[in-house]
Amino acid sequence: MSYLLRVTTSTRGEKSWSNKLLAEFEAQFKAKHPEVSVKNRFTGDIPHLDFAAQSAGRTPLDKQTDADKQAFALANELTEEVLNASALVVATPMYNWGPPSSLKAWMDRGMISAEDETSAYTKALKQIPAAVLRAR
Q1: What is the rounded CA–CA span in Å between residue 25 and residue 48?
Q2: pTM of the full predicted structure?
Q3: Three-state secondary structure along the chain?
Q4: d(C-alpha 94, C-alpha 97), whole Å
């Protein structure tokens, strides 16, 4: 499936400058790529990385317990979401001189991969065009 993965972090909804910037980006992207659908991901509901998920990510798939697989399920979902995208755009505000911590949670959860998949994951990421939009 070909889609633009649209990652938002702002909790301000329609008042968000980063969301307004993203809407303009998306309109221009869709004008050039009308066949590509858009998949949305809001980072505000992604929990910060905990030890169980981090440990599961460092365990080879064939050695993961049921508890490891459960702890790693969200990481797998987020990883697949990125790897299946044909393009990625991240829109973020700057809160207190930095992006929201939910953006870091998304990266921590989605960028870890089981030990035996790390190399393939890194190579695949290099093939996905990406843009980061920042608003203050």
Answers
A1: 28
A2: 0.85
A3: CCEEEEEECCCCHHHCHHHHHHHHHHHHHHHHCCCCEEEEEEHHHCCCCCHHHHHHHCCCHHHCCHHHHHHHHHHHHHHHHHHCCCEEEEEEECECCECCHHHHHHHHHHHCCCHHHHHHHHHHHCCCCEEEEEEC
A4: 6
Q: Give residue limits of the domains in the chain.
A: 3-135
**What CATH class does 3-135 carry?**
alpha beta
User: What does the pLDDT look like over 46-93, one tens digit per residue?
Assistant: 999 899 988 888 888 889 999 999 988 898 889 889 889 999 999 999
Backbone angles phi, psi at 124, to 5 degrees: -65, -40
Phi then psi for residue 83, to 5 deg, are: -65, -25
